[in-house]
Amino acid sequence: MADLHFTDAVATDGERVAIDLALGDNRATEAEGERVVRGGASRRRGLRHLLLPALHALQKESGWISPGGLNYVSEVLQVPPAESYGVASFYEMFRVDTEPGHDDDVVHVCIDPACRIDGADELIASLEAEGKHVHRSPCLGQCERPPAVFIQGRKAPDVVPADAEPFVLPQAGDGNLQLLKRLGVVDPTSLESYLEHGGYQALTRALEMGPEAVLEAITDAGLSGRGGAAFPTGIKWTAVREAEGADKHIVANCDESEPGTFKDRMVMEHDPFALVEAMTIAAVTTGASNGWIYIRGEYPQATGRLENAIAQARDAGLLGDDVAGSGQSFELEVRRGAGAYICGEETALFNSLEGFRGEPRNKPPFPTTNGLFDQPTVINNPETLLNIVPIVLEGAEAYRSRGTERSPGTRLFCVSGRVVTPGLYEHAFGATLGDVIAAAGGAEGDVQAVLLGGAAGSFVTADSMDLPLTLEATREAGTTLGSGVVMVFNASDDLVDVCQRIAEFFKNESCGQCVPCRVGAVRQHEMIVAIGSKPMPQDKRDLHEDMVKVMADASICGLGHTAASAIKSALALGLIGADQ
Amino acid sequence: MTTTTETAVTISVNGSDVSVAAGDTILDACTAAGVDTPTICYGPTLTPVNACRVCVVELEGSRTLVPSCSRPVEEGMVVQTETERVNHSRKMVLEFLGSGVDLSQAEEITGWMQQYGAQPERYDNPERMNEEVKIQDDLYVRDYDKCVLCYKCVEACGDDAQHTYAISVSGRGFGARIATEFDVSLPDSACVYCGNCVAVCPTNALQFKTEFDLRKMENWRPEDQSVTTTVCSYCGVGCNLELHTQDERIVKVTSPDDHSVTWGNLCIKGRFGWQYVHGDSDG
Predict the structure, then answer these.
(1) For labelling, which of A42, A370, A411, A494 has a CA lying 20 to 30 Å from the CA of B55?
(2) Per-domain residue ranges for chain A?
(3) CATH 3.40.50.300 is right for the domain spanning A410-487
(4) Nearest residue in A to B58, CA atom
């Protein structure tokens, strides 16, 4: 790498202090008296993953990514400033513009479906009337309590005002709960309390069983990924255990950003030790010694509780050089995203964590051999990881006693919209859509449609209440469980408006790397806005079908593959574009 | 650049077996089989980014189409390049690009658009790149209205050639643009004016100022130009230069992609330092 070139912009003292504090001793340059000495290429490469933490520190200090601050970050990490800018400008939470008020606190208000049918516009109008700097945000993962707000403070902690309210799990006390049984019961800030509620029994058991037996149990249990793609977990873990390479990684994909999804946040906030324990089991089973929790930047409470849980686990010898006396080492670190739906795509997440733009990589190669830092990596959704605990404790057979043959176990459902009690629910696979809605107190008003699986999922109508919410039944019905979203709309809701927003969401969240998604998402949005509540003529239907095909066939990643599916279903069901 | 090894790998392309070296890509195999494949973001001297998706092919056993430019061959792969799915995706990629980008100087791409039947006019009031030409010096201009975001200039400026890192992709989605930090002007940036970005640009979004000026005067006449290959006289490295001349004046300088010294790359002197040939004081 050549010497870096910098503009004349200089960081303020405050910016320097804040960035230094975030980086600690991790610098690619050393000051030797008057001289600045640069480290070698490997040191620079080795530190690039600190770009996001450094940019977070700068944003917090100055309220934006100032040119001087960016130069300083780039210099100490020896990242070319054009690349640092390319990274900073990728994320919603980093501001690079100079509009008036650009460096104030920012009040993010969610404008995605569950919030827009429940007061988002009114809240934004009143906040703006107060002179607040409001950012119209994609889903903030609080769909059970709309309209969602997240305040990004300048020189002050980020806050979710609703976190101050007491937590109540709708199914509290239900003896059938597997994954949620500790939520609202355990003290999420205390390892002692976690231990009192059965915590770390699974790790002890996993160490007794040995890795081969754990892998066999997970495979026999038929556990599949809960993030949306439903990949068999046993295959993934086995591949990483067998992969060559001394350095392996466990990554929890906590960048939950699918509109309508809030399950991971609730679990992380109210049972954080369970995620830490499950990741530790993954580590001792696959031989990984590095763990990363990549959590979306809009989840300050979950971030704090996880950091606390990690610190307590480390103090208790449950993390570190010798995990629970097993002789294996496992270090765990929390990394915050900065507002980008695409970073929930596993390879985009790796790029983001490594300090590059959150653009997905082409697969193959797959993460099991070439994941984070190009090393073998298990990357799982938190809900998937939580399932490891009952599988290890009770065995595959007992685990399979719940759910169906092809969808064993239980599933978390994020129920929002027009139901009496929105919230997080756990049901054995096989519960129907009607059962899930009934458990949430039933629908409010006549159901017009239900969005299943999130913005990347699809709409179904009231005709589908008997649909079992299993992987096989939803696939057969041409829909998806996705991330467990069940968002209910009644007859009073404007689905034209909702669909326009879904189209806008994908337009805004496409990373822009590949043509089918970058342009296709924009053309889809233009088309849906132009149609409004009018009937969709056949030539436009054909054109949309052409767009659906190229996005599903030729996009790099799942975002592009699914960016048209909700709109496609809305058109097919006549929710939008129907003849009058 | 392909990795050459002793091992040969045989795959099927449109029903015919073709053998290529292990490490080669499906695109290499298609070329070896005599199958033409459109490519935009691919360059023989660059690491594939597989962003444009115009080179996609159907691979048996794969749910989605795969980019041929970056997918290494594996023994026994069965590839189809002329199916309805492949033609549809290629057509749509070209159509999408044509609907938002000025491709008036991208003859190869507009040729493929005709071949695949792309109809960019199918879209009502499509959002376009909508960028002004950036003229910040006398050497080259950047007209991002013509940019298809193929990443080639970023790669040529960075790891694949120059290691200057003056530009990156910034922003996100349709708003993504090639930019310096905070979009500062090129003279204020790390740019060293090697022009290697200009050399790899597939749409003329990056072009010599000489070409830009001649086009403006409607006097850019490729049919009247000749190309003379010579060796750069500035230093002892021995870079091959291709001097493009029109009306007996140099209008552009390139270097062959397959030249073992340059691989298509030059420095500011070889690329832009020809004015002395004409005895001009101001170029």
Answers:
(1) A370
(2) 13-88, 106-164, 191-400, 410-487, 495-572
(3) no
(4) A553
The whole-angstrom distance between residue A388's C-alpha and the CA centroid of its chain comes to 19
CA–CA dist A9, A361 (Å, integer): 34
**Cβ pairs A/B, distance under 8 A:** 167
Tell me the pLDDT band of B19, cut-offs 50, 70 and 90. very high
What is the residue whose two structure tokens read 């204020």?
B188
Q: Which residue of A has its CA nearest to B101?
A: A519
Which chain B residues touch A516 with a CB distance below 8 Å?
53, 89, 92-93, 96
**pLDDT per residue over A102-130, tens digit each?**
899 999 999 999 999 999 999 999 999 99
Considering the segment(s) B149-209 as one domain, its CATH architecture is: 2-Layer Sandwich (3.30)
Express each pLDDT in A170-186 by its tens digit. 999 999 999 999 999 99
Interstrand relation of A377-380 and A249-254 (parallel, antiparallel or unpaired): parallel
Contact criterion met (CB < 8 Å) for B51 and A556: yes
Do the Cβ atoms of B126 and A554 come within 8 Å?
no
Q: Rounded distance, CA A578 to CA A570, Å? A: 10
Residue B283 confidence (pLDDT): 46
HSE at residue A474, side-chain half, CA atoms within 13 A, is: 28
Q: Are A339 and B172 in contact (CB under 8 A)?
A: no
- C-alpha B102/C-alpha B81 separation (Å) is 28
CATH of segment(s) B222-283: 2.20.25.90
Homologous superfamily (CATH) for A106-164 = Glutaredoxin (3.40.30.10)
- For chain A, say whether B70 makes contact (Cβ under 8 Å): yes
Is the pLDDT confidence value at A245 over 50? yes
The answer to whether the Cβ–Cβ distance between B170 and A89 falls below 8 Å is yes
List, in sequence order, every beta strand (DSSP E) within A362-490: 377-380, 410-417, 423-428, 447-452, 458-460, 485-490
The phi and psi torsions of B39 (rounded to 5 degrees) equal -140, 145
As a CATH number, domain A495-572 is 1.20.1440.230
Contacts of B88 in chain A (CB under 8 A): 546, 549-550, 553
Fold of B1-128: Ubiquitin-like (UB roll) (3.10.20)
Contact in structure between A279 and A309 (CB atoms under 8 Å) = no
Distance from CA of A510 to the nearest CA of B (A): 5
Fold annotation for A191-400? Rossmann fold (3.40.50)
Q: Which of B54, B149, B182 to mutate to test the interface with A (most CBs of A within 10 A)?
A: B182
Q: Does residue A382 have a cis bond before it (omega within 30 degrees)?
A: no
DSSP result, A213-229: HHHHHHHHHT-B-TTTT
CA-based max dimension of chain B: 63
Alpha-carbon distance A496 to A570, whole Å? Answer: 9
| Residue indicated by tokens 């100087």 | B105
Q: Looking at A33-42, A184-193, A373-382, which range is the least confident one?
A: A33-42
A322, A324, A328, A331 alpha-carbon torsion, rounded to 10°? -70
pLDDT of residue A544: 98
pLDDT in tens, A263-295: 999 999 999 999 999 999 999 999 999 999 999
Q: Is the pLDDT of residue A153 over 60?
A: yes
Domain boundaries, chain B: 1-128, 149-209, 222-283
The answer to whether residue B3 scores a pLDDT higher than 60 is no
What is the distance, to the nearest Å, from the Cα of residue A538 to the centroid of all Cα atoms in its chain? 37
Which chain B positions have a beta carbon within 8 Å of A55's beta carbon? none
Question: Distance between CA atoms of A363 and A305, rounded to whole angstroms?
Answer: 34
